[in-house]
Amino acid sequence: MKIALIGAGVMGESLLAGILRSGVMPADINIAEIREARSAELTERYGVTCSDSHSAVADADTVLLVVKPQDIAGVLADISPALAPNTLIISLAAGITTASMEANLPAGQPVARVMPNTPSLVDQGMAGISAGTSCSDVHLERAVALMNSVGQSVVIPEDLQDSLTAVSGSGPAYIFYVIESMVAAAVELGLTREMATELVVQTVFGAATLIKHTGDEAQTLRERVSSPNGVTVAAINSLDEQGVREAFKVAMLSAKKRSRELGQPTS
Questions:
Q1: What's the mean pLDDT in 151-162?
Q2: Torsion of Cα atoms, 46 then 50 then 56 then 62, to 10°
Q3: Domain definitions of the chain by residue range
Q4: pTM for this structure?
Q5: Separation between Cα atoms, residue 106 and residue 103, nearest integer Å
Q6: Beta-bridge partners for 63
Q7: Rounded-to-integer distance, Cα 33 and Cα 136, Å
Q8: Looking at domain 3-158, does it have CATH number 3.30.390.10?
Q9: For 171-262, CATH number?
Q10: Burial, 228: exposed, middle or buried (Cβ in 10 Å; 0-12, 13-18, 19+)?
């Protein structure tokens, strides 16, 4: 498989590293990155080729677009003349629909839409993948394999992409926010910041690992550690009284709305 990677920021590099770990050879990856210093850095670090976008996509089986949503249309217009008819285009830009990509490409060009998240940096990502109208099962399997190189993925109908973005795309930030809040509270309770951070991070990691390994519902696990009239129940009751559950729902609805707005054409 020949891969062209357009855009090599943090997410682009995490994908690059994961793809290489999955067994793809550096010689089979061509990167287009406008920052010369960044291109030189990646060439030295990974042994991949860096070139202009037309050269990068010319012999590619798959093109990964890891650029900002507002840049997608321009990038597609730029690379379109150099694409082979069966080259798969995978966009990782939030809110950009497969239909909008197809409108900027030759008829029949296979496209897929992916929403990753930042734990991809440590091979623990969660991505949602949706196929365009000309994306075959073979193309879709290729997209799944690429995203699984940095974590896990699910194939979903495209009309659920904005919801997935609100859940897993933005989700790590919610967890970081919870950790940040717990650490701040722990410091007020008298712990040092270093100790508070260690306690909170390991607790969150342990809780996530427990639910992953047991397969039990979060509610079931919560109830097991919530003795009647106990310490944990006091804390949970306080969270409920302050509307934390409802606040999460409102926040995620806001994220979904914003994801949808990013995919709308600007006037």
A1: 96
A2: 20
A3: 3-158, 171-262
A4: 0.89
A5: 8
A6: 4, 89
A7: 29
A8: no
A9: 1.10.3730.10
A10: exposed
